[in-house]
Amino acid sequence: MTADIDSSALVRPERIRPVQLRLPSGTVEERGRLRGERLRPLIHDAIRGYSGLFDELGIAERRQVGAAAASLEALRCWDPLQHAEVVSVALAAGVTPIELMLVIARTEILAAAGQGQGECSALVALTPEGSAVGAQTWDWHLELSHLWHVNDVASGEGTVGHVGFAEAGMLAKIGVNAAGVGVMLNILANDGDRCGGVPVHAVLTAVLNRAMSLDEARNIIATAPTSASSTITVVAPQGAFVVEIGPRGKAEQPVAGIAAHTNHFVADALQEGARELSAETKSHERLSLLDRRIDGMQGADSAAELTALLRTTDRDAPVSLIADFEKPRWKRPATLVSVRMDAAARSVGVAAGSPSMIGAGSWISLHA
Asked: Mean pLDDT across the stretch 22-42?
């Protein structure tokens, strides 16, 4: 947990060529060892990057470490196999498990400090056959634009196998598994957010590892003792749902045809204490724009159709973001990754950068 990463190394997100990590079948310890060995430099950069962000936001190192340790213990109690895999990753990468949790539990550390960061937009729809497709933008700090990778995990101990993308050090993030169950994520904010809960990224991992249906995904999310507000969108061959997670509970919103979500609470039951991510948030404007675009649609034929709806220009609310290199460091949000998924096909497409900047040949196609 030392100096921040070098701004001179920044490149435009669409120019990133991500590492493609493929893990064969094995035990959690074997998967963790391979992940840690193969991603060692990226993991070290991710820890330094998040430490730099936390320092910039005035989160004391003691608080960072305490929050990471608390989430590590919460994960051990809730999902021992995932905890064992995290420990194995850390050992193989040459870091401590608590240092690794600075990345895995970064949402909880930021939420506990009252620091809203980054904004994402997600769309989910049912196809004429009743299966689900989804698309989202992952908008985050330009300084961290090179610290994600393609994730392709074969079935093995504790997992049915899944594909997608993850930040370096995380076991999973956005993706779909071999049963066609997929997850997308939006960060939210509430005055009651705190550190110490099971990281929302560990919840995503658990769904991808174990859920064979919508109901199983629902049960995994419901049992997770989380502490930071988020929205998880779940797609499956049987349909889709959106669940908002807050300090006062979880509220599910079924998807009947097509739905959008950005970065503010929508559920009436979770409005107490709800707040905006930041003074600069455009969450309401982005949701209004997406709602106008999907108005009258009864669903979608493909994930590509949804991805097209996420393209924006300077004249629109910034559903997808192009980095402004003239802004100060840590004030340059950008769409780092665009994602689309098809539950019935058990497939995910990932591409570096904004949908507005992506060419047809830029997509990396993955199948679970």
From this structure: 98
> Nearest CA to 123 among 184, 179, 211, 164?
184
CA 348, CA 20: separation in Å to the nearest integer?
Answer: 14
| pTM (two decimals) | 0.95
**Helices 28-38, 40-56: crossing angle, 10 deg rounding:** 80
pLDDT band at residue 8 under the 50/70/90 scheme: very low
